[in-house]
Amino acid sequence: MTLSIIGISGGPEPGGRTSTAIAAVLAGTGAEHTELLELSQVSTEQAVAAIAAADGVVFGSPVFRATYSAQLKDLLERTERGKWGEQTDPLRGTVAATVLTGATGHHFLAANDLRNVLASFFAVQVLSPGLYFDHAAYTSRTELTEANAALAGAHGAALADLAVAVGGSKALSTITPQI
Predict the structure, then answer these.
(1) Whole-model pTM?
(2) Is residue 1's pLDDT more than 80?
(3) HSE-CB for 159 with a 13 A CA cutoff
(4) Residue 78, CB half-sphere, CA atoms under 13 Å: how many?
(5) Residue of 28, 122, 12 lying closest to 60 (CA atoms)
(6) Segment 7-49, tens digit of pLDDT
(7) Domains plus CATH for the chain?
(8) Using an 8 Å Cβ cutoff, are 153 and 25 in contact?
(9) How far apart are CA 73 and CA 59, in angstroms?
């Protein structure tokens, strides 16, 4: 199976720690096609089209006020679910991993909010646990420590395995949101 896995970075500006972490997860997937999209640089329409074409998505965001960014929230609010007259459902049958970043470990539980929205509202098969990297996980703004790069890579490999499993299962790939 040829895999296409994209990363969506919900930071308010390009580059930085969140994009670094997402890129490390993407590198671990071994997918034939990976791409990192920065919501600060692409339109909602471009991001939704990329999601629809992908077998898996790595959603990432810095944590602001104990939750994921407004940019990522806006994308998810504008992504149709195939309910109540909506014509598309780009996340149906998709797998996802989550990567949140923050200054300290105090906000690591914010990862639960994003996972819950993806799993419950969109019926996405979400890799658990999600990743949370604080500043201590980096040697610089654009490089993870060796141990954290290995952890991100392991999550990427697991996401690729999950994409193959879900893609090969008629039951898992057809689950839709209940409400």
Answers:
(1) 0.96
(2) no
(3) 38
(4) 15
(5) 12
(6) 999 999 899 999 999 999 999 999 999 999 999 999 999 999 9
(7) 4-173 (3.40.50.360)
(8) yes
(9) 11
DSSP run (H or E) holding 139: strand 138-140
Closest CA to 108 of 100, 96, 118: 100
Classified as helix, coil or strand, 118 is helix
What digits encode the pLDDT tens for the residues 62-88? 999 889 999 999 999 999 988 877 788
Element (H, E) at 98: strand 95-102
Q: Which helix (H) or strand (E) holds 25?
A: helix 17-29
Helix residue ranges per DSSP H, 58-145: 70-78, 110-116, 122
As given in the structure block, the two tokens for residue 91 are 């996340």
The band of 136, judged by pLDDT with boundaries at 50, 70 and 90, is very high
**Three-state secondary structure call for residue 121:** helix
- For residues 73 and 29, give the distance between their C-alpha atoms in angstroms, rounded to a whole number: 25
